[in-house]
Amino acid sequence: MLRRRICGVPVSMMSRATLYGVSQLEELPSSPVILAPDHPCGFLHDAGALPLVSPMKVAEIDLSTPKATLRAGLHQKWRNRLNRATRAGMRIEHGPMCGRDDHWLYLADHALQKQRRYRNWPTSLTHKFTQLSTDHSRLFTAYRGTSPVAAMLFLRHGHVATYHIGHVTELGRKDCAHNLLMWRAMEWFQAQEYGRLDLGLIDTESSPSLARFKLGTGARLRPLGGTWLYLRGMAPALRGLGRWDRQLMRAE
After folding, report:
1. pTM for this one?
2. Which of 20, 88, 161, 168 would give a disulfide with 175, using CB separation of 3.0 to 4.6 Å?
3. Is 252 helix (H, G, I), strand (E, B) or coil?
4. Which residues contact residue 195 at a Cβ distance below 8 angstroms, ignoring those fewer than 6 apart?
5. Left, alpha or beta for 47 (phi > 0: left; psi -120 to 50: alpha)?
6. What single DSSP character describes residue 42?
7. Distances in whole angstroms, Cα of residue 217 to Cα of each of 28, 93, 150, 151, 212
8. What is the pLDDT of residues 72-113, one digit of tens each?
């Protein structure tokens, strides 16, 4: 639970939380709590929580299926690019994310954020996470000679790995390097008995090409639970408003 003070008011946030029922909400602080469940929770309407943001979807790859099934699940164009990348003769290396916070991938990602005007995790936070243990990250890099042409950083947590950031040069894009890196990552995490590879949010409006790349892996879309505001002391009075909002959602 993340805790902050906004204009002197204590506010808490639970991101990607697993919620099972109303009884859990009774244990939350009396101050405002922002809930972002990992899965849809219909009971939040009846509990008096106020919806703030509609649920988004994440793309996930089930690594418990056989390798042949994973490959068969690739979109045809995605598989063709993978075959092209395999023939391109790039050298692939992978290992824990080591080094300082001025690693070339961090710098490239920061430059891309500035160019496209979006925000990712702060580099310092990613760096701290990767330095906690060698088990916390895996960096896959494609080389042409001694020069890196593409890289993908995955964060590891439990039996799940999450695609975090990546970068590809013009040469790497020409050789479809990211397709090869993603496939090698799928193979490696499966061999390590990871159950799921989380490719992150799907946004077909602002990042259509990235969405197509993720879905081309055969990943399935899974809805998250949206974002809610919960005020425990006012919950009984807000239950009617929550039910009205649910009716409006059904009508749409």
Report:
1. 0.87
2. 88
3. coil
4. 62, 63, 64, 159, 160
5. alpha
6. T
7. 39, 21, 18, 17, 9
8. 999 999 999 999 999 999 999 999 998 788 899 999 998 888
Residues 6+ away with beta carbon under 8 Å from 68: none
Please name the residues in contact with 99: beta carbons below 8 A apart, sequence gap of 6 or more.
none
DSSP state of 196: E
Q: Which amino acid does the sequence have at 145?
A: G
Two tokens, residue 24: 């859990």
HSE value, Cβ hemisphere, 13 Å, CA-based, for 7: 1
pLDDT score, position 118: 78
Residue 106's nearest CA partner among 126, 92, 91, 90 is 126
What is the spatial distance between Cα 160 and Cα 180, in angstroms, rounded to a whole number?
20
User: Edge-to-edge strand order for the sheet containing 9-17?
Assistant: 2-6, 9-17, 33-37, 227-230, 50-53
